[in-house]
Amino acid sequence: MSALFRLTSRAVALQRSAALNQAAALRLCRSIKTSPKKDETVAAPATVTTEDFANPNPKNWISYGFDYKSEAEDRKSTKSTFFFAVTLCLVWGTFYWSYLPDTKLRDWAQREGFLELRRREEAGVDLISPNYVDPDKIVLPSDEDLGQTEIII
């Protein structure tokens, strides 16, 4: 019985040491950084000259593509372009388009159809007349003209 107790205590000790080794390895892996550290670079403070004040363009300015020489003109052109494109075209254009009158008279045709259906229901007449087209105006081919043509009804 004591041998079994010793064996299990050794197994537990091995599991604990394996878990500690694995935790230490994870800590080492987590401390590896692939980006350069900011503290390692040494930058000497640049002295400000009168030329820096004469050139108001910042060094890291990226143009939006409207003006490559002046940041103020570039920003102004960008803002005005987006104002006209978004506000005037998208917002007001959508508003105008949605409130246009019914040029193809779809709403009128649907209302007239419903009124005609109601009138025919109240009068007790067929909803669609079987003689919608005058039978005298329909010209059908004769049996000789049809020949062996299959007619599907």
Automatic annotation (TrEMBL):
It holds the Pfam family ESSS. Its main location: mitochondrion. The chain crosses the membrane at residues 81-99. The keyword Ribosomal protein does not apply. Keywords: Electron transport, Membrane, Mitochondrion, Mitochondrion inner membrane, Respiratory chain, Transit peptide, Transmembrane, Transmembrane helix, Transport. It is found in: Mitochondrion inner membrane. One of its GO terms (cellular component) is mitochondrial inner membrane. It is a single-pass membrane protein. Complex I is composed of 45 different subunits. Interacts with BCAP31. Belongs to the complex I NDUFB11 subunit family. Accessory subunit of the mitochondrial membrane respiratory chain NADH dehydrogenase (Complex I), that is believed not to be involved in catalysis. Complex I functions in the transfer of electrons from NADH to the respiratory chain. The immediate electron acceptor for the enzyme is believed to be ubiquinone. This is NADH dehydrogenase [ubiquinone] 1 beta subcomplex subunit 11, mitochondrial.
